[in-house]
Amino acid sequence: MKRYISNLFAGVAIIATPALVACSEDYLETSPTDSVSAAMATSTAENGYNALNGIAKTMSTQQYAWSQGCAGEGRIYTIYENYPSQDYFYNYYATGWAPIMNLEYSTRNNTSFDCYPWYYYYTIIGQANTIIANIDNASGDPSLVKFDKASALTFRAYSFEKLLHYYAPRWQDSNNGAADGIILRIDESTGGQALSSMADCYKQIYDDCAEAVKLFKESGLDRNSGDVWIANENVAHAVWARAALSRQDYAVALEHAKLARNGYPLMDNTAYYSGFCTPTSEWIFGSYGDAQENMWYWSYGTQYACNGYYAANTANGAGAINIELTNQIPDNDIRKGLFLTPDKFEHFSLSDPTVVDTYYMTYGILGFTNDDLWNEVDAYINARHAIGASSMARPYAPGYYYLGGHTKFYVFDTPGIGYLPFIRSSEMYLIEAEANYFLNNAAAAQAALVELNTSTNRTPGYTCTKTGNDLFQEIVNYRELELWGEGVGFSDYKRWNLPINRKGLAQGGNAHAAIAKSVAVNNPNWTWVIPQWETDYNDAFKSTADESAE
């Protein structure tokens, strides 16, 4: 394979790559609820289910009022979770995107970056509220009516829970929930409304999930087979578990994590190596991503899949894992096998001047001027591709390989077509481990890790006898490895009250110098400010700080 080296890093800036606007067919022959009248969307039980498809479309389509790439959960994954995390590096764009990656934009209330999650999740909440408020009067199968309402409640709870990650402080910093949370819009009104306390916000999420579970059970129905983009009872339990974990309500998190994974067994290693672009047995919730709804250059896979458009045509790469993390993982771990880590290459040597050159030190490119190393990496890519993903295009076709580069996420069609996992049963095992740790059930926490790592042979021979802080670090390491790139990296470190501390190659890491930074836990930038777009036009907006000043 030929290496293209000229014009390597021209024009890198904090803008998205030029893109085309897609003209697509109707999404599963449905429309989002904001494009039809509420009466039509909820007139029949069948229309209600189609309206749920409309919510799912919002989660995987370009919102044209915003900047390039604002396309639902893929945007949230990238800008608000992966980029500012401890262990996801996109070194090609690190210089231009450093303010986002280093959490330097979150106190600017008039930027699109600050506004987008607020706009996006309240759009979903508004669509869900339309269904919740009107579906009881729908004609048709009463069981399907209950399912529609339960699913809408789950979409709403999912959105409230996500908003709290970005616009509210950590629970442990909230004075037991007295701090400001978000605005709890639970009906179709759009007028002024004040912030609710974090305690009230979590209560609403719990209430929504509880009502959803009740209605799901009463309906006796599940989503259509394979419709991972429709919220069902398992999703409701998973959202409940996530919310409880963030609220440090560990017994509740443990209970619902176990219920969430019921019926979604862990995938085997063959499925694990199949590209994370089509649902497997453990996908509890995810996006719709077939070719009939092609987002073209807005899709997550276009830029961040190892065989997506940019990795297949440019020097961008597709994102890399922090080798400080993978250095702590056994070399025989099948998840570590998804990444280009130093243990795999005989000719990787920091003392070799053909490896440690200026470009390599800056961007983390493997074998830039060392043919032996490059050939090793190229051979590894070929061998990895032959296992599980050979039916799809080969990754990194131009031959730009980054230290820590991934072969986890593929696309199955050009330029970036693929499904995206939102919640997997693997995460539920990790929630069980974390919850048990904080409940002082060390043996149960160890057992959850063993079940995740051993039952599927992800870490052959894995055992865990660690206790105390060593056990907590084990949970952290395996959660970061298991869920790398799946949109939880920032929120995890915020919840854990851990600092971001990225290192460049000379210090033992592989972050570009522009993002080889530390962000202390007491830095106010961990919380995005409420957008000016909301505070200027919501005449009832009032924060706890405002009340204290009166």
Give an account of the 3D structure.
With 550 residues, the protein is an all-alpha fold. The protein has helices spanning 38-41, 45-58, 73-82, 94-101, 112-134, 142-167, 198-219, 233-246, 250-260, 269-272, 300-304, 309-313, 323-326, 358-363, 371-386, 425-438, 442-454, 468-482, 489-496, 532-537, 544-549, and strands spanning 88-89, 283-286, 320-321, 421-424, 500-501, 518-519. The relative contact order is 0.15. Helix content is 43%, strand content 3%. The protein starts with 37 loop residues before the first helix and ends with a helix.
How many runs of DSSP E, i.e. beta strands?
Answer: 6
How do the strands line up in the largest sheet? 1-3
**Gyration radius, rounded:** 23 Å
| Helix amount | 40-55%
Give the overall pLDDT as a whole number: 89
List the helices and strands in order: HHHEHHHHHHHEHHEHHHEHHHHEEHH
Uncertain regions: pLDDT < 50 for 5+ in a row?
1-35
Main beta sheet, described?
Answer: 2 strands, antiparallel
Q: Structural class per helix/strand content?
A: mainly alpha
Q: Distance between termini?
A: 68 Å
Q: What is the 3D shape?
A: globular
Strand content: under 5%
